[in-house]
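Most newcomers find our protein records easier to grasp once they have seen one. A learned vocabulary of local backbone shapes supplies the integers on the structure line. Here is such a record, shown just as it appears in the course material:
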Amino acid sequence: MNTARFLATLVFPQLLGFSWVVWGVQREWEGAWGGAQEEEQEREALMLKHLQEALGLAIGKEEENSPGTSESKAAWENQDGHGEPEEDAAPTSSSSPSPSPTPEDAITYILGRLTGLDTGLHQLHVRLHTLDTRMVELTRGLRQLRESAGDIRDAVQSLQEAQSRAEREHGRLEGCLKGLRLGHKCFLLSRDFEAQAAAQARCVARGGSLAQPADRSQMEALARYLRAALAPYNWPVWLGVHDRRAEGLYLFENGQRVSFFAWHRAQHPESDAGPSATLHPLSPNQPNGGELENCVAQASDDGSWWDHDCDRRLYYVCEFPF
């Protein structure tokens, strides 16, 4: 027992001193390691700053300190003066500290970002190519629609022309079947009230024109046809005769000058008639309208010609070639 006490008194002070020496060396080593870490972190921050300026990427300017260093410092601060940790201190984390990022890690991160940007740019190019292809297809479809519209327009125009030809042929046949045939002409009375120009347009649409009697025999035959069609009434009927171009110069609708006339003339009273035998005010000599009445109508009772206002709405008679 005394021997054990003696050995304890000799060995324990030496062990205690050795532990103090080891603790001092460890503190010096940690101080040197901490300074080296700080220098390394400064170099990394400077390198990241240069990469930021070169590539324009937002990278953190500071890196967090290693959790292992802070934990080791906290562990040493919790120890008392004899180098032993306090009994009520919380146990330190057993997990290994995460390593500090290296310049290679930063470069890898930047290259990854660049790869992502390149991938996004490639996707944009693919979408632009798709849109361009779609635009070409739409342009081609629009051109085809325009060509189809042009074909349809031509077809509609052809149909309209065919319809006009059919209407003219139908009018010509109707005029010759229902009307009066005189040589190479057919006359057909229309009981629609129209102005002289509108009546001419209606006759042209049916394949003819307003009646243009070529001579007195045709005029007399036309007068008999109108008298039979409208008797016992007297209706004025438009003819294709007018002096719109020049007053007193009467022309047919085809531009030829009229070579004969059948103007109405008032009946003169006999020389031995009484005072009451005067000209009727509603039956003056024709033409009497001057520049106000430039179109000619034929009376249906006696076939005489009267000048009228061209805007007056009257019956009309069309002629068709046979």
